[in-house]
Write a structure and sequence with these properties.
Length: about 300
């Protein structure tokens, strides 16, 4: 009986050992599968990472290619602009200067006797601003400037009393910087001196022979062409009319054009020559006795 119990317990033990062996085998299989799963999972992560790196490399490569293409195109454009600019400069047509402009340039570069004379006279009297000459007339005089307009009305260049006085610039003008229009006054003397010759401009035939005048400053020789000749007068302050003697400087192009329009309208005859803003002007004015406080006026523009 005892042996039978021992045998029965031995069988149970062997059966339990066999079950434990089976459990261990299953556990090993499960661990193996888990390890395999983990390995596969890690491999998938690595594959994804590698794929991402490959995609990033491709994108970077494409970006670098696009940048290289843009740089190349930009370089071509810059080279084209540079070469085009050089070509235009090299092949720009040369504008031939009119003969008169060339002569003026030469006159400025070479010492002019009259210019040198004006410079010397300025050392004697600093009120001297320039010298005006109209060929084939008696008008060949110094032009004075002082804020006391009446001073040279009865004084010569040497500040001595003289009924003929001197030619002088209007006191309301500014010469530094210079106004766009210089208004020069002078007596109309019976002996034909000073600005008497301006009266002759009433005749168109006289104008045709005397279309220009020369004005020297201490710095340069200037040529002027006449654009209008007319008779006007000195008006009352309250008179609402065009007053040529009130125009010294144009604040804008419209003011300038209004002045030109008005003097052209007053001109005794049509003159083709005209002025455009901001051409410099000189207005010559002297007494004219066909009306009260009459004035004979000649306007020239710098050429």
């Amino acid at each position: 009986m005892a042996n039978k119990n021992i045998k029965s317990r031995s069988n149970k033990y062997n059966k339990n050992s066999k079950n434990q062996a089976n459990l261990k085998s299953r556990s090993d299989k499960y661990n193996s599968k888990t390890e395999k799963f983990n390995n596969n999972s890690n491999n998938m992560k690595n594959n994804k990472k590698n794929l991402k790196n490959i995609n990033n490399k491709k994108r970077n490569k494409k970006r670098k290619i696009r940048i290289a293409i843009l740089c190349f195109i930009l370089a071509i454009l810059l080279i084209g602009i540079f070469l085009g600019g050089r070509y235009l400069v090299k092949h720009q047509p040369k504008v031939k200067q009119p003969k008169k402009q060339v002569e003026e340039k030469v006159n400025k570069e070479v010492d002019d006797p009259k210019l040198e004379e004006v410079k010397k006279l300025y050392q004697e009297n600093n009120d001297l601003y320039g010298w005006i000459t109209i060929d084939d007339t008696k008008i060949d005089y110094p032009v004075m400037y002082t804020k006391d307009e009446d001073y040279y009305l009865d004084k010569d260049f040497y500040k001595k009393k003289s009924s003929a006085g001197s030619l002088f610039i209007d006191k309301y003008n500014t010469i530094e910087p210079r106004d766009i229009n210089l208004l020069i006054h002078g007596h109309s003397m019976k002996d034909g001196s000073m600005f008497r010759a301006l009266i002759n401009y009433k005749s168109k035939s006289y104008y045709e022979k005397h279309k220009t005048f020369t004005f020297y400053t201490t710095k340069e020789k200037e040529e002027y062409e006449i654009i209008a000749v007319f008779v006007s007068q000195v008006y009352q302050v309250s008179d609402k009319v065009f007053k040529y003697y009130k125009f010294y400087n144009a604040t804008n192009e419209d003011d300038y054009n209004d002045y030109i329009k008005n003097i052209k309208k007053l001109s005794l005859f049509d003159i083709e020559a005209t002025a455009k803003y901001p051409d410099k002007l000189i207005t010559l004015s002297t007494c004219e006795y066909s009306k009260e406080n009459g004035r004979m006026v000649v306007v020239g523009r710098k050429i």
